[in-house]
Amino acid sequence: MVVTLKPTDKKLLAHIYHNSREPATKIARAIHLSREQVAYRIKKFEKEGLIKGYIPLVSYSRLGYHSLTLLFLKFNKQNQIQEFKNTIRKSSFRINTATIMAKYDLGVMFVFKNEKERNEQLTQILQNYNSEISDYFIFEPNFSEFFPLKFLNAKEMPVQKMHEYKQEEYVLDEKEKKILSVLNENANLPLIEISKKTSISAELLVYKIKKLKEEKVLLSTRAYFNMEKIGHFYSILLITLHSISENSLNKLKQFARQNEFIDSLMTSFGKPNVYIQIFHKNLEDLHKTISDLNAQFQNEQIAIEILPLKNEGEDINALPFL
Asked: In this predicted structure, what is the pLDDT of residue 156?
């Protein structure tokens, strides 16, 4: 059942998608509601299943995990998919699993410390499921950006860089590990509850969370949604540009930042060399994005493949290594 959103509801969802721990007073002031009304609407959306949960956004490279990898899989039989999902859910490298509706069956996002660890783990997965997997594709981004929900009029919120290759590592202390572990379970848990779970005082918690943000380890926290509840769907565009020059990369970033439906952008040295995720209400929105993208690169060789998704992800574990 599709939830009808008022303009105020859209603004609220845009805020908590971009920064779910933003103070309620600040959100209320921005969307011209009382704190009580903000709290009521959030609880309502949680109950309706529109808000599925809250996760931390972190810089993996700052945590010493420099290899972000997407593995797309096609299985021989449909009944093999669930068994694989159940097994891979326990992986200490898996961030997310998404169901794909065409060409592949699943897309799995992993994060590894380095190329050696990545190669060992992916080789093991592909060998273990050699008889079940009929096809696969590996996408290894060297750069990724995450955008606010522009179709909810969140255009003024800043872009967040999720992954930049080999940034200087920040070494977490034990208290910081505890804090991030709790946020990984529920990134919107009140401070008093985090304090109980970690045995860290509220004052120290505030200091530690502020420090993690200043160090660009904890980028933000966000709600993740059941987009079908508001009549939107997910698709991935796998794009092959003949070459990615500094000029074409800047043009691509500018396009992604301005396009109403694009949620995230990743680039890779391989081919396809661009990954874009979009939220769209209908085929017209999807076609318009592709048409605009083709027009933007009309003087360059470009190929686009569409992978429709059933969901943004299942059993999201933003920090599987903690």
From this structure: 62
